[in-house]
Design a protein that fits this description.
GO biological process, one term: ATP synthesis coupled electron transport
Strand content: 15-25%
Distance between the termini: 32 Å
Radius of gyration: 24 Å
Bound molecules: copper (II) ion
Domain Cytochrome oxidase subunit II transmembrane region profile: 1-91
CATH class of the largest domain: Mainly Beta
Strand order of the largest sheet: 3-2-1-5-8
Keywords: Copper, Electron transport, Magnesium, Membrane, Metal-binding, Mitochondrion, Mitochondrion inner membrane, Respiratory chain, Translocase, Transmembrane, Transmembrane helix, Transport
Number of domains: 2
Number of helices: 3
InterPro entries: CcO_II, CcO_II-like_C, CcO_II_C, Copper_CuA, Cupredoxin, Cyt_c_oxidase_su2, Cyt_c_oxidase_su2_TM_dom, Cyt_c_oxidase_su2_TM_sf
CATH architecture of the largest domain: Sandwich
Subcellular location: Mitochondrion inner membrane
Number of strands: 10
CATH superfamily of the largest domain: Cupredoxins -  blue copper proteins
Length: 228
């Protein structure tokens, strides 16, 4: 989750998010080079008298500063497209979780098991405990096994919502009458937080998403306890 003084992205909890963080830093490096160059050029423009009786054209520099940006763009586009298609891929999932957005809570269905479904409401401020985070914790957390490919099916029952976990690099629109699909695998145990990311009404800010990532054997225990 985001903590104090965390200015940039959250630590990646999935391989895809790690790659996204690397890509973000890569693009930032290129931007830094461009802004430094432009700043240098602007300063030289101001400090020099830009007139010459003999220099009327510069074919070489014109060619260079047309081709160079194109090459730089390729260096951004290639890794970007690679990530785009990697995120779209669903690798033979071992578990499917369906999230349904409601005004204003999420409900979840573990379609691989019988009768394993529940609603997940935000814990209101009056019921806060030392261990819960304000506006982020839910009464029923999603429990998922770590290190296994998970397929998410996202939809909504009333208006548009968006199911988002920043540390997993997942953000999927929840649209009424439509099933959206995404996939991820969680690389470490822990609790992951997210919030609805589509302005969906008065309590849009109060329908958080909480995932408990646990080792597979704990997950099996949880499933058998829940389906009793
Ligand atoms: Cu919403």
């Amino acid at each position: 989750m985001t903590t104090w003084l965390n200015m940039s992205l959250q630590d990646g909890a999935s391989p895809i998010m790690e790659q996204l963080v690397f890509f973000h830093d890569h693009v930032l490096t290129i931007m830094l080079m461009i802004t430094t160059t432009v700043l240098y050029m602007m300063i030289t423009l101001i400090r020099n008298k830009q007139t010459s009786r003999f220099m009327l054209e510069g074919q070489m520099i014109e060619t260079t500063w047309t081709i160079a940006p194109a090459i730089i763009l390729v260096f951004i586009a290639m890794p970007s497209l690679r990530l785009l298609y990697l995120m779209d891929e669903v690798h033979n999932p071992s578990l499917t979780l369906k999230a349904v957005g409601h005004q204003w809570y999420w409900s979840y269905e573990y379609s691989d098991f019988t009768k394993l479904e529940f609603d997940s409401y935000m814990i209101p401020q009056e019921e806060q405990q030392e261990s819960t985070f304000r506006l982020l914790d839910t009464d029923n957390r999603i429990v998922l096994p770590m290190n296994s490919p998970i397929r998410m099916i996202v939809t909504a029952a009333d208006v548009l919502h968006s199911w988002t976990i920043p540390s997993l690099g997942v953000k999927t629109d929840a649209t009424p009458g439509r099933l959206n699909q995404t996939s991820f695998s969680i690389s470490r145990p822990g609790i992951l937080y997210g919030q609805c990311s589509e302005i969906c009404g008065a309590n849009h800010s109060f329908m958080p998403i909480t995932i408990e990532s646990v080792p597979a054997k704990y997950f099996i225990n949880w499933v058998s306890k829940m389906s009793e």
